[in-house]
Amino acid sequence: MGFFFTQTFIVSPAFLCLILFISPSLASETNPTITPTKPSAYEVLKDYNFPIGILPKGVQGYDLEPSSGKFSAELNGSCSFSLEGSYQLKYKSTIKGHISEGKLSSLEGVSVKLFLFWVDIVEVQRKGDSLGFSVGIAGADFPIDNFEESPQCGCGLNCNDVQPKEVRTNPIFSSY
């Protein structure tokens, strides 16, 4: 009986050393290193001095090359809605372009209905307290506070409101 105790005592420190050696790797598997989360597409818009409301709710993901400003944003399918007393907008499932401080250019995937025709919005520019939207040869400015909240596909800004929220517009549609 005493011999068995001696062997157990000799083996036990080796076993403990093995457990101590292995346990840090086990701990790292059960508690992975915490990595910073990727900011949302809406947070990225704020970083470039844009309000979140220029994108509809439901952006599933995005890619951004910070050095070039090239971006793409993915929606869960195409999206359209009307803004009360204003325009009809349509977003494709993928929106692409270039982003820089206060400017979205070379846009693809966003259209507005003007009279009877759908035209692509090709640029959005921050101009102080307003946003200028360009469809190429023409554009319009809107107060930035119209874009404090993101519209929802299908119902725009009037999904839960009893009274529709009217979008303030600049009645002058200018040509560039």
From TrEMBL:
Signal peptide: 1-27
UniProt xrefs under InterPro entries: At5g01610-like, DUF538
Keyword Lipoprotein tagged: no
Swiss-Prot/TrEMBL keywords: Signal
Listed SUPFAM superfamilies: At5g01610-like (SSF141562)
UniProt entry tagged with the keyword Secreted: no
Top-level taxon in the UniProt lineage: Eukaryota
PANTHER family: OS05G0362300 PROTEIN, T31J12.3 PROTEIN-RELATED
Official protein name in the record: Uncharacterized protein At5g01610-like
Lineage: Eukaryota, Viridiplantae, Streptophyta, Embryophyta, Tracheophyta
